[in-house]
Specification:
Length: 164
């Protein structure tokens, strides 16, 4: 059922004086006929206490409870300032669902989430720091050059990577 793995499996960073694992790497998998996805083994411990899944930027975001709560709080706080429209917050929360890996490390993805992200069978589970993202494999591959250009731009401007 699972495909290949590219890149490091995990990383640890310090935030607010606490060590926290980061989601990193890209992992290719297939959804089964019941909409279940096997999670990368290195992601399971971070999500074992529970997680949320929601549609985000043409993919699904999968994040530990704490990260979801922080993201939700940040969005909600900016409604009052006008920086975030209330409908954006409604969309974020209405599409969210709690998930937990089963004993085999799988999560069940609801049909509305599969549809929102355009997921049919082949997917890529990508580590994106504090969250994981689940992408349709073809869509993920088609955006490679765009991602590379944006990374090169960030490096040239010295954001988070240092100057080259």
């Amino acid at each position: 059922m699972s495909g290949g793995h590219r890149g490091p499996r995990w990383s640890v960073s310090r935030e607010k004086g606490v060590e926290m694992a980061r989601f990193v790497g890209a992992h290719e998998y297939r959804l089964d006929g019941q909409g279940r996805l096997i999670l990368p083994a290195s992601f399971r411990a971070q999500l074992a206490a529970g997680a949320y899944i929601t549609a985000l930027d043409n993919c699904l975001a999968l994040m530990p409870n704490e990260e979801f709560e922080e993201m939700s709080d940040r969005l909600e706080a900016h409604i009052g300032t006008g920086e975030v429209h209330a409908d954006a917050y409604r969309e974020f929360t209405s599409l969210a669902a709690d998930v937990s890996p089963d004993n085999q490390g799988r999560i069940r993805i609801k049909p509305e989430h599969l549809e929102a992200a355009g997921l049919i069978r082949n997917v890529v589970v990508v580590g994106v720091g504090k969250r994981a993202e689940i992408w349709d494999q073809a869509r993920w591959k088609s955006r490679r050059s765009s991602r590379s250009e944006k990374l090169a731009d960030a490096i040239e401007r010295g954001f988070g990577i240092g100057t080259v």
